[in-house]
Every structure is written in C-alpha cells, then in structure tokens.
TrEMBL record:
Co-factor binding comment: Binds 1 heme c group covalently per subunit.
Transmembrane segment boundaries: 214-232
Listed cofactors: heme c
Organism: Paraburkholderia acidiphila
Stated name of the protein: Cytochrome c1
Cross-referenced PROSITE patterns: CYTC (PS51007)
All residue ranges annotated as the Cytochrome c domain in the record: 32-204
Cellular component GO terms held in the UniProt record: membrane
Length: 241
C-alpha cells in the first residue's frame, strides 16, 4: 500500500477528460417501452438493487396484469402487494462489492435520465478492477456491468496527450473495441437501455404524467376564472362614479 501511495505521489499530473452525457430518448408515454423496462429492471437490477418505495402491484398501472406479474416478475417476493426488496444482506454486499448497492426507487430523479442512459452504455472490461469492469461516467465504480450479456464485452481505448494550455497530461478516451458480441446488437442494446431508463424515471414518480395533465387543466381553469373575475369587476364598477 505504501508503495502505491508513493508511486501515485511521484506520478505526473494527469487530468481526466469531461464526459458529455448522451440524451436519453423520451419514452415516458410509451407503455410498451415501460413494460419492457420493468422486465429488464426485475431481471437485471433487482438482484442487487432494491426499490423499497415501489410495490409490484403498481406495475398494473403500466398495463401489466396481476397474473403476468405473478408469472413473470415476482421473483423476490411472495405477494403482488410486496415492495421490491432484495434478499441480499448488507454485510454480504459490502464483502462482495465494497458497498451496499443503493435503492433505486428515486435514482432517476437524483441522477437524471441522461446520466443513467450514458452510464449504462459506458461500461468496459478492466482487469485491474475487483469486479473486472469499469465505467467512463463513474470511474472505478464498484458495480459490475449488469447488462454485459446483452451488450457483450468491450475494451476501452485511451491515449495520453498533453494539453497545450495547461501542460497537463490528459488521459483521453478514443473509443471502444468489441471483444465478444452480446445477445443484442448495439442499436438494440441502446433501445433496451432507453426502455430501462424510462422505467426508472416512471418508478421514481409514477404520477408524473397524471400530475402534468392535471396541471394543464388547473391552469386552464385558473385562466378561465381570471377572465370571469375581470369581467365581473368591470361590470361592477361600470356605473360607479
């Protein structure tokens, strides 16, 4: 450990390039995408990450019947009314990953859809990491790539260049190299991630679309009442000198 510290202290300064976030496709009103995203979440995320603020029964709002939930999505609970919890104990999580995986109930509201969309598409193989994976958006992340079977295995290519203005060595990303193909094509994988992110956004606030629609009606009502009040006020004061 001391050798690592001394080695790091003697190494030249190197800046990390800024990662630009990709825009997540808007699928908040696409029920098919939200249903597919819910399936991906249960099959690939719910093994380690909980969603304790969400109940399985709420998936019926996406057009998924109770029988479909029980047959295809209810793996870690006995009842449809149960919350989306995980069986993994916190102590085991710390031993395996170095930290307890966060609850994802409101992760989309915390991180933002663009961040999640870019993050899930930025994993690459890194044999220097304990899990064997790294991520360009979240460097040295403790989480392994949850969707690697779908995306396949990729390596990231970097080059060190010198910034002309600061003189610092910049570790610059130059692209990915596909090592083994995944079960999905790159375009289909991006679509899968978009569906998953859309579901995470819905899960973080299931009433968001209803709230927006209600807000429009409230504004229209207030506008109408303002007009009526203005005309009543004008009629009341018309004959007053």
């Amino acid at each position: 450990m001391l050798a690592l510290v001394l080695g790091a202290a003697g190494a030249p300064a190197r800046a990390q390039e800024t990662i630009a976030l990709d825009h997540a496709p808007e699928k908040a009103n696409d029920l098919a995408s939200l249903q597919h995203g819910a399936q991906l979440f249960v099959n690939y995320c719910l093994n380690c990450h909980s969603a304790n603020l969400m109940r399985y029964s709420r998936l019926q709002d996406l057009g998924i019947s109770q029988k479909q939930i029980e047959a295809n999505l209810l793996f870690s609970a006995d009842k449809v009314g149960s919350t989306m919890s995980v069986a993994m104990r916190p102590d085991d999580a710390r031993n395996w990953f170095g930290a307890v995986p966060p609850d994802l109930s409101v992760e989309a509201r915390s991180r933002g859809s663009d961040w999640l969309y870019t993050y899930l598409r930025s994993f690459y193989r890194d044999d220097t990491r304990p899990t064997g994976w790294n991520n360009r958006v979240y460097e040295n992340v403790s989480m392994p790539h949850p969707l690697w079977q779908l995306q396949g295995v990729r390596m990231a290519k970097f080059e060190d260049t010198v910034d002309k203005e600061t003189g610092e060595s910049v570790h610059r990303f130059t692209g990915y190299q596909q090592v083994t193909p995944g079960q999905r094509s790159p375009a289909d994988y991006d679509a899968d991630v978009a569906d998953l992110v859309a579901y995470l956004g819905w899960m973080s606030e299931p009433q968001r679309q209803t709230r927006k629609q209600l807000g429009v009606w409230v504004l229209l009502f207030l506008g109408g009442m303002t007009f009526v009040a203005w005309r009543l006020n004008a009629a009341y004061w018309k004959n007053v000198e």
